[in-house]
């Protein structure tokens, strides 16, 4: 039995109720169906299910599972998408979204400012004969020039990691759709709370659920949202045969994460704005990058698209790598790690960790300078985080 509220409910209602399935016991909390297989009543039933499984019929956990189905339906409801498929990690979702669409000879246009592993997947596509063109995602002229009549897909992070560039989603969608291309968006930094990706023309929306959806840095997971046709006819066959399936336990962790996500992410974004504003003008900082600040180059776009600056801040120290390392090592509350979207505030030095693999020229081009720090704001009191940053900067 599935328990999906009306389509027009508030996202917080959907995040608590959408997709809930109850067994014959009528359990209140979502059950973990920790089972790899499912029993058929007869040989005929097994045969019929392999021909076509109904929405509440399962075959094998790599194909789908009732707990994971709850997570998928809840995500689809939140995203305003027809359907979703959950995966073992965010990267399994990015990999499946792109590889399920592309074939040798296809052309893909991607924004250059991407998470390191997303760049790796694009390099892999190129290795298998897909032509990939890279553009500066904030420059619509570059998208216009790069997208061709034979472009199969465009791919970008709606807010880029770690320099928080904001892409004009509607404008890029319009250019892509005019060429008949599929728009694939990695929406992690925007979060499902501030996402209007489907309304702004995204065909496929991908999340690393490891981040804000879990919200506690506990489990890896990912999810792909899209039309029912795309999810069931394109993404699902790819995933069910290549093995990117999510664990039912992790789906259950994510279902729990979703129930509080809206409250958490809004509180984190409120703190991020307060912290970014407090850090502005600090003598040791050459840049405070936060889309919620009026001086961000895409501030108006961020507000129109997301209604928030999000939960991430980038700070650039004037003193370069040594100053950045000194500040990191002096922090007492904010922890050095490379996850994000956690309840605990986390700081990263991208040039030597998440983006170490890139050449120095490429890092320079992406604005990942030796003094840049990426900050993921958690649920602590904003004043404590500001105090920690101030003492770490030595002022
Ligand atoms: C973390 C992240 C991913 C990868 O997600 P995993 O769950 O770690 O596999 C992809 N894209 C972005 C923007 C991310 O931040």
From TrEMBL:
Species name: Paracoccus tegillarcae
An annotated Gene Ontology molecular function: carbon-sulfur lyase activity
EC number: 2.5.1.-
Cofactor(s) required, per the database record: pyridoxal 5'-phosphate
One GO cellular component term: cytoplasm
Single biological process term from Gene Ontology: 'de novo' L-methionine biosynthetic process
Keywords: Amino-acid biosynthesis, Methionine biosynthesis, Pyridoxal phosphate, Transferase
Class of this enzyme: transferase
HAMAP family tied to this protein: MetZ (MF_02056)
Chain positions found as N6-(pyridoxal phosphate)lysine: 211
Function comment: Catalyzes the formation of L-homocysteine from O-succinyl-L-homoserine (OSHS) and hydrogen sulfide.
PANTHER family assigned to the protein according to its UniProt record, in alphabetical order: CYSTATHIONINE GAMMA-LYASE, TRANS-SULFURATION ENZYME FAMILY MEMBER
Xref: Pfam families: Cys_Met_Meta_PP
Protein name as catalogued: O-succinylhomoserine sulfhydrylase
Family as reported in the entry's similarity comment: Belongs to the trans-sulfuration enzymes family. MetZ subfamily.
Reactions catalysed according to its record: O-succinyl-L-homoserine + hydrogen sulfide = L-homocysteine + succinate
Organism classification: Bacteria, Pseudomonadati, Pseudomonadota, Alphaproteobacteria, Rhodobacterales
